[in-house]
Amino acid sequence: MQLPNYAARANSARLVRLLCKGKCSHVVWAEMNVDYPGQEVLRKSQVGDFTAVCLKCGKIAQDPYNWLRP
């Protein structure tokens, strides 16, 4: 998987793609606070159970809706 420069140094076990609600306003790579637990776990989680930091602008996302892995 080819990552853009802004995501190249992130921990690959924690990478997800999400819609950034910060300055980016589009789908970007983000790094979760834990290793990716799987889509089923994310689907059942509540807001705030996990966080992901946008690797472009630094906005912290707490709603795991549609956090995807390639």
Describe the model.
With 70 residues, the protein is mainly β. The chain has one domain. It has one helix and four strands, in the order E-E-H-E-E. A four-stranded antiparallel beta sheet has the order 1-2-3-4, with no helix packed on it. The longest helix is centred in the middle third of the chain and has 6 residues. It is globular, with a radius of gyration of 11 Å. It starts with 14 loop residues before the first strand and ends in a 9-residue tail after the last strand.
Biggest sheet, strands in spatial order? 1-2-3-4
Strand/helix succession: EEHEE
Residue windows where pLDDT falls under 50 for at least 5 positions: none
What is the tally of beta strands?
4
**Average pLDDT level:** 95
The biggest beta sheet is recorded as: 4 strands, antiparallel
Question: How is this structure best summarized?
Answer:
The chain is mainly β and 70 residues long. It has one helix and four strands. It has one domain.
Sequence-ordered SSE layout with sheet pairings:
Blueprint: E1 15-19, E2 27-32, H1 39-44, E3 52-54, E4 60-61
Antiparallel strand pairs: 1-2, 2-3, 3-4
List keywords for this structure.
9% helix, mainly beta, 70 residues, globular, four-stranded antiparallel beta sheet
